[in-house]
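Troubleshooting entry. Yesterday's outputs looked truncated, so today I'm pasting the complete records for two proteins to confirm everything comes through intact. If either block looks cut off, that's the bug. Protein one:
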Amino acid sequence: ELDANPRAALLFHWDPLGRQVRVEGQVERVAEQESDAYFATRPRGAQLAAAASQQSSVLQDRAEIDTRVDELAREHEGSDVRRPDHWGGYRLVPETYEFWQHRDDRMHDRLRYRRANGDWIVERLSP
C-alpha cells in the first residue's frame, strides 16, 4: 500500500503524560543494502520467521508456520539466512510535526511545525 500511496502518519500517544506527537510525511523504501544490513543484525530466530512467513497471509494452523521455520532452520544450518525479497523497510520523511498537550479545560495546546521552502514554520493550532 505504501508503494501505491507513499504518504503516512505516525502517532505517539502518552496518556499518563497527557501528550502526543503526530508526524506526517512522504514515505520512501529504504535501499536494499540498508535492509540487508538491518536484517543481518536480527536474531537468527527472527530471520527464520521472516523467511518463513508471508505476513498476514492465512494459515491452516500454527503447525504450518512452525514446520516451515523448522525446515528453513535445517536448510540454513551453518549458513546465513538470506533476507527475503518481501522483507524491507520504509522511511518516513517528516513534513509536519504536531505536538499536543492535554489541558483539563479542553483548551489543549497544539503546536505544528511545518516544512516550507527548506525552513520549519511554527504554528499554534486551535484546540
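Protein two, checking that the full record survives here as well:
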Amino acid sequence: MGHPIHIGISTCPNDTFAFDALMRNLVDTRGLDFHFELLDIQQLNDALRAGRFDVVKTSFHAALLLADQLRVLPSGSALGFGVGPLLLAARDGAVPRDSSQRTLCPGIDTTATLLIRIFYPSTTQIDHVVFSQIMPDLKSGKADFGVCIHEGRFTWQNEGLHLVEDLGQRWERETKCPLPLGGLVARRSLDDELTGRIQACIADSIGWGLSHRDETLPTMRRHAQEFDDAVLMQHVDLYVNDWTVDLGTVGRQALATLSTLARRSGIVGHDAPPIEVFESTDARPALPAKD
C-alpha cells in the first residue's frame, strides 16, 4: 500500500477523461495510493475551504480566495479560448440591467460567478443551484438569466433558450488571455517531493487519455449529464488542451490577469496573495501506458 492521496475531481468529461488512467491504475503511481471522490464543482469548492482533500479540482475563483493555503499544479487545469460560460436568457433580447432580475449561477465560488460579478456588477440578485439545474429552471421561468457551464454549452439551443453573451469571448476580447476556469490545487502543507510525484502521475494520466481517447468513454459516460459520445468528445476537445497538459507561460499570465481583475472589482482584497503555481523538479518524461 502506497502513500494515500485523497483527491477530489469534478464529474465533467474533461476531468473524467484526464484522470481515467489514474483512477484505473493504468499509469505508474510512483508509490502513491490515490483515493478519488467525484463531486459537483461547488461541492469541490466547499471541500477546498474545509480542507477535505490533499489535491482537488477547484474553480480559480475559489483558489483566489484561498491562495495562501494552496499551490496550483501545472497539469490538470481547464482554460483556453472558446471555453467560457454562456449567459443565457429565458426571453429573446433580454439583457441584465438591474438588481430586480434573477440570475442563476453554478456556485458562489465558481469562475462563472466571478465573471458575472466582473462584467455585470449591477446584477446583484444571484442565486446558486447545481449546474445541471440551471437550464431547466431557466426554461420553466424561475429566473431571468442563467450562466451555463459544462456540457450545456453544446445543448442549450435544444432547450429553447437565448444567448445573451459568451462570457469567455468577452474575457478574451478584453484581456487577450485564455480564460482560466478551474485548476488542480495541492495543499501547501504537502512537501515539494510529494507534490512533484503527484504532479508527475497526473501528467502521465492526461497523456494516457490523449493517446487512448476511445478507451476513456466508459468512464466519461458513467458520470456525465450528457450521454451522447460525440458531445462528450466535443467537450474533451474544447477543455483538454495544451494548457491542461502544462499551464506554461501563457497559462500563468492568464492566472495573473484573473487575480488583477478580481482585485480591481473588489472580489478579493488588494493585499490578497497571488495564486502560486507549483514548479515541478521532476524532469522525467511521461511513462508509457501499461498494457
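Both blocks look complete. Sanity check on protein two: Residues 283-291 have pLDDT under 50 and may be disordered.
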